[in-house]
Amino acid sequence: MKKFNLIVSSLIMFFVIVSLTNVVKADPLTGTVEALTGSPSITPTSSSENIEVKYQDLELDWAKAEPDMGRTKNGWWVGVKLTAPSGADFENAYFSLQRLEGTAQKYVFKDVEDSPEKSGIDNRFVNIWLFIDSNDLDGKSGDIQLGKIEADWNNDTSTDQTITVTINVEKTNLKTDPATMSTVVIKDSVTSKTKSFTVEKNGSLDSLDSVQKEELKKFTEKSGYKFLGFFKDPGDTKFETSETISEETLNLTAKFEKIPESSGSAPSSGPAESAPAAVAEKDNTPKTGSNNITTYFVVMLLLSSMGIILLNKKH
Q1: Which carries the bigger pLDDT value, residue 209 or residue 272?
Q2: Which of 86, 111, 139, 162 would be 121's cystine partner, CB 3.0–4.6 Å?
Q3: Residue 105: beta bridge partners?
Q4: Do strands 105-108 and 94-99 pair parallel, antiparallel, or not at all (unpaired)?
């Protein structure tokens, strides 16, 4: 009987714990996601815990920087609008934003929100912009994750909602504005690889932004080669680095000169002209080894002759 009572008590305790767990566990807070650029698919729903904003056909116009809107430099931007849930802790709610494989940056919602009123509990939102350029697409194919957003709406240090933004490399078209922009295509004279950079018209390669300058530096730095400069024609001798760019597309060649390898031999202590004289002097020096051999043969010949004479006398 005691054993039966113990089993019943255990079952009652189990159901009580399960019931309490279900009561305490609340549904996660989830905001709503909308696209600011293009027409991506948003799955499974725009207010799920884990949302994928997926672009399969994306065409972006080049745009000038608008820091007040969160677009800090010239180029191409993909944007999403994230509306906070009404139950969010608006004083402390935050989200992290990671672009490509970079480091995630944390933002407090109330400090960056774009809501006109910035008060109350409804329709408070933030526009999140992700930068993209041709360098991000080089050497890649298929779908890539452009950005990842993780939101903690109640400030309990756990992620309530994750939003990923993906694009398809082959189906992404970054358009330039012929009136204001030029495309500089640089060919590597060593490997024949090409790389494209976008600059403002009436600018120069010096007007590339810091990210592109770093890519340009990597493209032109080669072990064992000296970088000579950029030329319009492989046979040209005129540098084009600072020339004003007015063409819609400018084709340049990055030229390199191979650095001669060191021979590793020790330098001569005397003038070069002394070498032939030294050889000549060496050639005129008596060769004692060969003289000793000649003397040996002469002695042996004399002894042989003397032996033959003595044998003849005996006979």
Answers
A1: 209
A2: 86
A3: 97
A4: antiparallel
Q: Which two three-digit tokens encode residue 119?
A: 């008060």
More confident residue, 59 or 232: 59
Helix-, strand-, coil-residue percentages of the chain, each rounded to 5? 30, 35, 40
Q: What is the DSSP letter of 117?
A: S
Please write down the long-range contacts of 202-205, taking CB distance under 8 Å and 24 or more positions apart: 202/244, 202/245, 202/246, 203/244, 203/245, 204/241, 204/242, 204/243, 204/244, 204/245, 205/230, 205/240, 205/241, 205/242, 205/245
The residue ranges of DSSP E strands in 47-93, in sequence order, are: 50-55, 58-61, 76-83
Tell me the C-alpha to C-alpha distance, in Å, between residue 73 and each of 68, 77, 137, 261. 11, 10, 18, 43
Question: For residue 182, what are its two tokens?
Answer: 């030029």
**What is the distance between the alpha carbons of residues 117 and 156, in angstroms, rounded to a whole number?**
26
Give the percent of the chain with pLDDT over 90: 43
pLDDT digits (tens, 9 = 90+) for 62-112: 888 899 899 988 889 999 999 999 999 999 999 999 999 889 999 999 999
pTM above 0.70, yes or no: no
Is pLDDT larger for residue 138 or for residue 279?
A: 138
Instruction: Using DSSP, state whether 264 is helix, strand or coil.
Output: coil
What fold does the segment set 181-258 form as a domain?
A: Immunoglobulin-like (2.60.40)
Q: For 9, phi and psi rounded to 5 degrees?
A: -60, -40
* pLDDT above 50 (res 281): no
SS3 99: strand
Q: Give the residues across from 222 on adjacent strands.
A: none
CB–CB of 150/93 below 8 Å? no
